[in-house]
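Quick question: what would this complex look like in 3D?
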Amino acid sequence: MSAANDKNDYLDYTPQTFPAPEPTAEQDRTRIHYLNNENTLRSWLLTVDHKRIGLLYLFSVTFFFLFGGIAAMLVRTNLITPTGAILELDQYNKAFTAHGTIMLFLFLIPVIPGVLGNFLIPMMIGAKDLAFPKLNLLSWYVFMAGASLFVWQLLVGGIDTGWTLYPPYSSKYSQNSILYAGLGIFVTGFSSILTGVNIIATIHKMRAPGMTWGRLPLFCWAMYATSVIQLLGTPVIAVTVVMLAVERVFGVGIFDPNLGGDPILFQHMFWFYSHPAVYIMILPGMGVISEVLTCFARKNIFGYKAVAWSSVGIAVVGFLVWGHHMFISGQGYYLGMVFAFLTMLVAVPSAIKVFNWTATLYGGSITYQAPMIHAIGFIVLFTIGGLTGLYLGTMGTDIHLHDTYFVIAHFHFTMVGGMMFAWQAGLHFWWPKMTGKMYSDFWSRLAAVIMITGFALTFLPQFVVGYLGMPRRYPNYPEEFQFYNIMSTAGASIQGLGYLMPVFYLTASLFFGRPAGNNPFKATGLEWQTQSPPHPHNFETTPAVYFGPYEYGVENGLSIFTNENGDHLPTDTTTPKEGVTSGS
Amino acid sequence: MAASTSAAGPVAHHFDSMNQQHATVRLGMWLFLVTEVLFFGGVFCAYTAYRIWYPQDFDAGSAALNVGIATVNTFLLLLSSLTITLAIRSAYVSDRRGLQRNLLLTIVLAAAFLGLKAREYHLDYEEGLIPSTEMIRKMEKVEVVDPKTGEKSIRQEEVLVSKFNHALVEVLDREGYKGVPGKDYDPYRVQLFFMFYYSMTGLHVLHMVIGLGLLTWQFILASNGFFDYQSRYVYIEAMSLYWHFVDMVWMFILPLLYLCGPHTFDQAVHQFKHAIGMSGSH
Amino acid sequence: MAHDHHSHSTELHEQETGVHTVPPISTTLVTFGVLASLAVLALFIGFSNDLGGMKVVASLTVATVQAGVLAYFFMDLKQADALTWLVAASALFWTGLLFLFTLTDYLTRHLGVL
């Protein structure tokens, strides 16, 4: 009994065959995987399988993304004319607040950790599930509860303070939806925390034998760093929202100057989380890019250690720079100088990644499937976004640029041009793994190009108009800016079309897509060495790992697995699979 | 401690060994406690910022608190930390009776803490120490200058004063606080202190209530034999980590909120007696 | 056997090290005694009124020592692995960062432009 319970001798396993052999058509129809092993509603809503929970998150965040997108279209449409085309002043405030809050809290923060993190991390490290499967399910329910409350409040009353909720407006003058919306945010924060706990514990304690930190896929490094930020930052915004709520309920203020309070204290505590929050958003995306670039350039990552440790660097230094949002708020000058200097430092790890990715591409054998198009779009757009951040991080130029459209363009370049495209890259890269189906190559590439084009048209003019002085969050603007705004709105429509397209062709792939096989892109991760869709337990036995995560382009490349005789199985990782680049 | 009841329990399907499972559970709870430290850290930071700005006013606010109840509560909570540590030992040696007893003691001590805390809040309410913008009418001596003759006289007049300020001054008078409102402290700033008092102790109470619920759940599980498997003691250990953290927060709340103002031991005794209804005079 | 090729290139799960035991009751009781004494000391400091500015420093020091004893013995940091220590230290360090930067604002804002 103790021998069965206490499997000290991991060496004594009967290995399944790695990589799993490609299924025959008969096997493909009849074999068990995580989607068909149980089919009741109960088995979905009470699942503890991390893969199913990943799909639950996929449905949720897509749903909320559509909401946020509608809010964006309201904002952009209203800005066609200098005096506001379709919305009243109050409605406009509610529209941009809704857009910001939904996209940040209900889409960008949960999307990759919730969908790809949940789905892939156990598989990438050779585990059967996350450390705390039931907590994982709870995490999704908590997310849904908080998000539903929040969206409901937006619909019945709306909040009009901007996503930053600054007092005294939010504490004294704005209306009551703030309280319940704040509660919604508080609750979704718990989801963030629980996911973070799960991921950190999993990566520390559940790696397969041989999966050292130096062999961990960079996606896992990035998710680890993200989870650390989630743990350290989210509680602070939670308590800040609590204090804001206390202030609203009692009517006497912690942040009210009339009573000796300081509105800037709110800003300090708000941004202590909200700046690292943008790293929560981007780091998982960066992890995805490392995976996608290596696969589609058929090349090992350049500078694995640099990329891995830069994730940690971003997580740490990202906590030291929040005051760059507050240069003109009234915080002390001395502190502002410190923050400006540290902001220059935080750009360095991101830049290290970009250089390493570029070097990875150099000399690679590149093919341009949809994930790769998105990934290259990411590199270009994120770099632009990052560089423009430097102007904002310098106190002097920030005085001119703060609260203008320059800021809006900057963060949309990093969050949409960066994170959104990284999400698209990841979704398209792992879709065959998650569903076992291949989507249309033509439509996916077209959608990628449309998204990138639309994005550029939307946000490049905003740099110009912001520099020229157009303030953010204003529904009215001077006549001379109208041209830029129209361009921007036109771009937004094209972008919107681009984002809708995957909904259609990915759904179509579920019914009409050809079976993808286990490893359509001939990638080297552990997750690609088993069947698509994966078995409910991922691996029948715990694998043992001998090589790094990106052993591409190795002549007669050795598999990272052995068979039961201890022979390394040769796998050809030099040539992409035939037929992947053609349509179905 | 029969051999059959100290059997190791089953390993969860996604773990390879019991040791791995234990280590993961402990790590998971420590990671959660990180978030709790940052959570309380946030409100403590806000408190500290204002303490730097308004030291006098925060002193005055502290002087109005019931330090007698706080003193007794400190020892109740410390004792509960002891009993839950003993509960881990009981689970480790598969002593079901001992585990039930120690968990129950912890629950009782926690409930006693919460009961005294409720009483404390009730007394605060009775004394009117709730921050609010409400104004009440009060008779006060006012210096009046006759516009025609320029003569100054003192008259009793009805004035509007802040309800909280009025209550605060009364309480501080009773406690013998040697400060003059308006000169040594600003009652409006003391409202800020009281916001923190209610927020910080309130959040602490919330965590204790949740802890109490979890302890009760574990007690029920223990009574049903869940912890007869020796390997499951790790869940008691995880619970104790949370509980010790709650105790730790109190260790900082006590000096920051209660003890920073001037108090004497006699005052504490008197306040506690009054709280539990022993002394009549007030 | 399948052992040979695993020998140098694989490593044990992290979890294979560090089996915990429960400390003897005497340790637990003595720790409680120390904590209770520190609580008495904290109250003594709190009830004394002639420390002036040192009062806050003294009571926070006592609270820190109490927290340390609680963490080391009752929360079992004594037996914990390096990772747990790192986790605990990070929590304190990050709280410290929050305090450091925010309070710097409150302590230097009045200085104006330097």
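Answer marked as accepted. Residues 36 and 66 of chain C are 9 Å apart (CA to CA).
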